[in-house]
Specification:
The chain is an alpha/beta fold. It contains 5 helices and 17 strands.
């Protein structure tokens, strides 16, 4: 175990960051709110680039129950959280969430100042549709702030799985990540590289910037903690 003191931007408090495993990305936690580095990295980018975020209209797709999602939900009056349930009509409320498919959203054009996703875009079968829909629902000057593991870095992006007859077919070794609403997990469909910026532009017309932060004081360290911001 290794630890250091600093300030957590997710709970906005002085804290002790504790490394309780081998990998910083998932095991370097805030002792007060339990946030992990990529969540703090995303919240830090929001604070630095969108200082009036509390007055924005924000759509977060597939939020977690902690970290940046909590601060966004508690700090923004016009925050909307959505999940996707394939057995619930789109646009309907289900528990705390509105049911929305990122690839075919029910929102009117120019609805939001910010759209936030955290480790979602590597699980979509048609991400080009999602990026186009996100651009459609953003107001002029709005932005999509998100994390996604850039596993391939400077190599080409690889499609990892496809959906055929409602069945997942992996093109490589089967890979799943945790899913906050399903014990089955979410299949990994893409291994993205930095060329995701070109993919986003071709899909949506949005330009993208990648933010890389490493700060022990903010508890941000580890692989795949880049934050991407696509601007409309």
């Amino acid at each position: 175990m290794w630890k250091n003191y600093g300030h957590c931007v997710c709970c906005n408090d002085a804290t002790e960051f504790v490394l309780n495993g081998n990998a910083y990305r998932d095991h370097y936690v805030c002792s007060k709110c339990g946030s992990i580095p990529r969540q703090r990295a995303l919240m830090n980018v929001v604070l630095m680039n969108f200082p009036e975020w509390e007055f924005f209209s924000i759509h977060e797709s597939s939020p977690s129950g902690d970290g940046a999602s909590c601060r966004l939900r508690n700090g923004c009056q016009h925050y909307l959280a959505t999940q996707y349930y394939d057995d619930v009509p789109l646009g309907k409320s289900f528990g705390w969430f509105q049911n929305e498919d990122l690839e075919r959203q029910t929102f009117p054009d120019e609805s939001f100042d910010l759209v936030v996703t955290q480790d979602v875009m590597e699980h979509l079968f048609h991400p080009e549709r999602a990026f186009a829909e996100i651009a459609r629902t953003l107001k002029p000057g709005g932005a999509h702030v998100f994390t996604v593991p850039l596993i391939n870095q400077r190599a080409q992006t690889e499609k990892w799985a496809v959906l055929e007859n409602k069945e997942v077919h992996f093109l490589h070794t089967a890979e799943y990540h945790g899913n906050p609403i399903s014990d089955k997990g979410s299949p990994v469909t893409y291994h993205w590289g930095y060329v995701i910026m070109d993919f986003i532009y071709k899909s949506s017309g949005m330009t993208t910037r990648i933010f890389e932060t490493e700060s022990l004081e903010l508890g941000i360290r580890g692989q795949y903690c880049e934050v991407l911001v696509s601007y409309k």
